[in-house]
Amino acid sequence: MSVHKASTLQSGAGADDDSAQASFGRYLQAIRIERDIRLEQVAEETRIATATLDAIEDEDFNRLPPDVFLRGFLRAYAQTVGADPDEAVRRYDACIRPFRLAAKALANPRRAKQVIRQRFPQPICSPNSPGTCTTPSKRTGKRV
Question: What's the mean pLDDT in 111-137?
Fold first, then answer.
């Protein structure tokens, strides 16, 4: 791998698309693969279960541990593969930010609609199921 490509991967620049910019799992996986490190080696060195590392790479929130543990796991994984631990956590934070804002808004049902529309004027679409959006269209009121 060229020096430019390695620094591009670590800085987050040159991502294929905007969703890859905020992707913590794909970031770590790409660096691991580029450096020819097996997932089992990461598991052995970090003492993190292979299933958990796999869930991190897949960004499968249903299989990920609680936030406080996950942050430590992301840092350990990043250090093991030679990635920037702060960058991995920053990408994780960017990924979960919309969910935290929505949860905060839903804690006060009267303000929920107002806060969500204010924070997310554009529809939020799931990267795993293209074409499905979570906010109604302003013109028709129907889900787009």
Answer: 59
Q: Say what the alpha-carbon torsion angle 79, 83, 87, 89 is, to the nearest 10 degrees.
A: -40
Query: pTM here?
Result: 0.61
Closest to 93 in 3D by CA, of 12, 36, 29, 32: 12
CATH 1.10.260.40 domain locations along the chain: 3-107
Task: Give the span between the Cα atoms of 115 and 119, in whole angstroms.
Answer: 6
- 92/61 Cα distance (integer angstroms): 11
Q: What's the angle, vertex CA 71, arms to CA 68 and CA 75, rounded to 5? A: 145
Assigned CATH topology for domain 3-107: 434 Repressor (Amino-terminal Domain) (1.10.260)
**Coil, helix or strand for 125?**
strand
